[in-house]
Amino acid sequence: MKTWAAVVLLGMSVVLGACGGKEAAGADKKEIVVGFGVGTYEEQFRQGILPILEKEGYKVEIKTFSQNMQVNPAMKEGSIDASVFQSTAYMEGINEELDADMAVLNFVPSAPQGLYSEKHKSLDEVKDGSVIALPNDPVNQERAVRILEDLGWVKVKADAGTTDFNLNSVEPDKYDLKLEVLDSAQILVSLADVDFGVVNGNYIANAKRQITEALKIENTPEQHRVTVTVNQTDLNTNWAQALKAAYESKAFEDYIHDQAKYDGFILPEAWESN
């Protein structure tokens, strides 16, 4: 009987030891996959972050998705370890929608939204019937409409949400505008077909244009700044902390400051201690 108990305990210790070793291996792994949507954040990573991680012995696979909506399902199914494309507000909405458990690791240099036009040189040229292109996802659409609200072009109902925002919450103010909803990545290339469009700044930078070309730039609240996102269970892993440290490093800060395309980006507060 004592012999049998010893065998059982030994077996349990072997199983537990194997599980513990697996968990440790996950925390200490040196191969990671990072996902991106379309835009400039992949270039920031490839040029400014990847060299830092490689010097520390990490092997990184970069996955770029053609549509932002594809990134978070990939995170949930485990095909990527981290993503760099979304805001806190967007992430929280997707967590609820997908029953996911993603968390913010850190903030990255973020591009504000702006109101752009190829047909007009001034905001004074707006009139009743002007066509305004807006992003189709609720979070970015709410941000875009707030720009129009700040200009006095529209009114937004007090009970309008963020992650569940829709255009039913928008009413005319000074002007009766036609609001046209497009995929965020398509607005910049569609500016010739509309009067004005609200474009996420990362698409502007990626097109080798300047954010300062905007006729109006948003004052981006923290909940709309772009983040590095990981699953909650990975927040304190060695690889996640190495990723966070790279984004907060002086070397990456210097890289961003040396690139004119990032003029106008909102910079991480963590850099204040560099």
UniProtKB/TrEMBL annotation:
Pfam families: Lipoprotein_9 (PF03180)
Segment forming the signal sequence: 1-17
Bilayer topology annotation: Lipid-anchor
GO cellular component, as recorded: membrane
InterPro entries listed in its UniProt record: Lipoprotein_NlpA (IPR004872)
UniProtKB keywords: Lipoprotein, Membrane, Palmitate, Signal
Subcellular location: Membrane
The keyword Membrane is assigned to this record: yes
Principal cellular location given in the protein's record: membrane
Coiled-coil annotated spans: none
Family assignment from sequence similarity: Belongs to the NlpA lipoprotein family.
Protein name: Methionine ABC transporter substrate-binding protein
Species annotation: Paenibacillus donghaensis
